[in-house]
Structures are given as C-alpha cells and as structure tokens.
UniProtKB/TrEMBL annotation:
PANTHER family: ALLANTOICASE, INACTIVE ALLANTOICASE-RELATED. Residues 26-175, 195-323 form the Allantoicase domain. Its EC number is 3.5.3.4. The keyword Thylakoid does not apply. Keywords: Hydrolase, Purine metabolism. Gene3D superfamilies: Galactose-binding domain-like (2.60.120.260). Pathway: Nitrogen metabolism; (S)-allantoin degradation; (S)-ureidoglycolate from allantoate (aminidohydrolase route): step 1/1. The gene is alc. This is Probable allantoicase. One of its GO terms (biological process) is allantoin catabolic process. Belongs to the allantoicase family. It comes from the Bacteria. It catalyses: allantoate + H2O = (S)-ureidoglycolate + urea. GO terms for molecular function: allantoicase activity.
Length: 324
C-alpha cells in the first residue's frame, strides 16, 4: 500500500500526526525476541527503507529492517518500542518494504503505560492492551491501522506471527508528556516533545510543518518546513498548538540551512479562544541564521500563528515561556 492510499475507515489526518516512536524523537527498540538476520533498531529509523540487491553479509542478504530467524518451535516473535514521546495513539503503520519472501503473514500491536524508566525486564509484567488485533500482512507493502483508544501510552509491542521481517513501525499520535517535571521552570511551549503540535498550515509542498518543532537542530533543509514558491500577493503561515496555555516570552526563529529560500520576514500572533494578540510584529529574517526575539505581550495564549513573508522555509521554531 503506497503513501497516497488511504484504507477505508482510516482518518487520513492520523497519518499526518507525529510518529511518536521515531528515533529522532527519542524512541528506542528496547527488546526483541530475536534479531538474527537484521537489527531491531531499524524499525524506527526516520527515513524510508532502502534496499540493494545481492548485498550479502555474514547473516545473508542485508535488509533495512528487523528480521528474525525461521522459527522451528511454537510461538511468535516480538519487539518492544519505548515511544520517544508518550501519547495517545491514533494510527499504526506496519511496513514490510522489500521483504517479499520473508515477511510475517500476520501481525498485532499492543501498548502499555509504564511510569518512570522501566528496564526491559520490567516490561513483560506491565498491563498490555491490544490496539491492533491480529491482521494479515502482505510482502513489500505498507499496512495502515486506525486506533480508537484515548489512553496515554509509553510503550508498544509489535508481534509478528510467527516470524519474518518488518522494515518500519510507525506510531502516529498526539503527544502527552508529563509536564509536571517543569513545575516552576520555563520550557519550550511549542516543542513536539512537550506536547506542541502544528494544527494548520498554508503549504507543505517540500516538507512537513511539524519538523519545525522537532527536537534538536535540522541537519539539512529537508528537516525543516519549506513551502512552494508563491505567485500571488499572500504569505505562508502555520499554527502551533502549545503544550498548554502559557505565556511566551522568547521566540527562536531558525533559518539554518535555508540559504536561498529563507523568508524575508516573520510575524507571530498569539491566539487565546476568540482573542488574537500580536506577539512579534513583522520582523526581518536573514538566511541560514538563528534569530532570537524577546516578545512584548505578557498574556497567556493557547496557539501561536507563525506568518512568513512571502514564502520559503524555517528550520526550527522555539517558543520559550511558562505554563499559566
């Protein structure tokens, strides 16, 4: 199933939500029953799976994915992923790209909520809930599954029946981190890892807007947000839902890696219900430069609209402040 295909009954917006398991968000494959042919860590790599035919190592053909040995005993294989950001899971994608004669015929997914920092030995005793019932898989295909569960989860377990290879596991959802650790402290209210989310965007032709609130620094322009070239009198924009209602005091607008396609200017507007307030008037930007602006408005807001003029790209947006 290709990226453009949306299965019946699947809300297509679910697949635009962040992948909470992604390695670049801090996800980790903490345990697996077996990884004889290909390593479990591949399941949560950010890029699309690759493949080069007739590339053999000591374990056979090299695959960009997780592959277990052929089982000769009852049971099934599994891998446990700690989500990079805990949250409510809306959709799961099981991708068997390039696994054509060695994919598992069936798979299921369970989820658990475990406080603290559990070890792999602690996790089997956790209360696991099935969020994707056992379903048939095809080789070299993406399989999309809607999840109807409002529980906040920290871990997922991919079960493959009985064995085989899976290239990627995507766990799309809404971040629900524990923000109590920031009591009395400031934080980045826009950060995806803190529960921020881009809820609207004028254009995402080149890259997804949630990149601008991802952890770390963008290594190249594809890891930011970039729009198509505008041919009208308007401007591009996005709206960020903050981690919680709060007061934004410092904005970081980073155009790093955007050498010839940075916006000429930016403006920030705070939104609190029906009320809109100017946080940052239209201000000039430079290419390939981190910019920091102290903001004027002291009142709390729930969303911030970022207007860029007229188009272009941003590497990162950070909105530092306090929860109200």
């Amino acid at each position: 199933m290709s990226h453009s295909d949306t299965p019946p009954g699947l809300n297509p917006t679910s697949l635009h939500l962040p992948d909470l398991a992604l390695r670049t968000l801090g996800g980790s494959v903490v345990a697996a029953s077996d990884e004889s042919f290909a390593e479990k860590e591949s399941l949560i790599r950010p890029r699309r799976p690759g493949f080069q035919a007739e590339t053999f190592g000591n374990k056979g053909q090299v695959y960009d994915g997780w592959e277990t040995r052929r089982r000769r005993e009852p049971g099934h294989d599994w891998a446990v992923v700690r989500l990079g950001v805990p949250g409510v899971i809306r959709a799961v994608v099981i991708d068997t790209a390039w696994f054509k004669g060695n994919y598992p015929p069936y798979a299921s997914v369970e989820a658990a909520a475990v406080d603290g920092h559990p070890s792999p030995d602690d996790l089997p005793a956790a209360p696991w809930t099935e969020i994707v019932p056992k379903a048939g898989l095809e080789g070299d295909a993406e399989h999309h599954f809607q999840v109807a569960d409002e529980t906040r989860y920290t871990h997922v377990r991919l079960n493959i029946h009985p064995d085989g290879g899976v290239a990627r596991l995507r766990v799309h959802g809404e971040a629900r981190p524990d923000l109590s650790v920031y009591d009395g402290l400031g934080l980045d209210l826009a950060a995806l890892a803190n529960g921020g989310l881009v809820t609207a965007c004028s254009n995402d032709f080149y890259s997804v807007p949630n990149n601008v609130i991802a952890p770390g620094l963008a290594r190249h322009q594809a890891e930011g947000w970039e729009t198509a070239r505008r041919r009208d009198e308007g401007n591009d924009w996005l709206v960020i839902r903050l981690a919680g209602r709060g007061v934004v005091k410092l904005a970081e607008i980073d155009t790093t890696n955007l050498l010839f396609n940075a916006p000429g200017a930016v403006a920030l507007t705070g939104i609190d219900g029906e009320r809109e307030v100017e946080l940052l008037p239209r201000s000039r930007l430079q290419p390939d430069t981190p910019h920091r602006f102290r903001l004027r408005h002291p009142g709390p807001v729930t969303h911030v609209r970022v207007d860029i003029y007229p188009d272009g790209g941003l590497a990162r947006v950070r909105l530092h402040g306090h929860l109200s």
